[in-house]
Amino acid sequence: QVQLVESGGGLVQPGGSLRLSCVASGFAFSRYTMSWYRQAPGKERELVATITSGTGSTNYADSVKGRFTISRDNADNTVYLQMNNLKPEDTAVYYCKGVYSIVARSYWGQGTQVTVSS
Questions:
Q1: I need a labelling partner for 29 at 20 to 30 A (CA). Which of 21, 46, 99, 100 fits?
Q2: Which residues pair with 50 in a beta bridge?
């Protein structure tokens, strides 16, 4: 059974930090490009960060560059999102996604809520 389970969300004050985790099971994690998306109330889901399989190249949305870091541990089938200097506009449900384009497969997690507020 394929699963992506996010954790680490919560309430944090502006300027604070959170580390999100997404644990994968049921598929060949190391072959998948992994991404974090977020969706704020009333807005479309947007791509936050991506890390490829193999070389582990990363890419970030302009709004989070220099503040967020995506990483992965293939031994533990986990992808992380370290979020620093959080702002109220980072408030959203954060989702992880795995994509294996060669076989046109993708999987989503259920999401974890991040709220940045004083």
A1: 46
A2: 35, 59
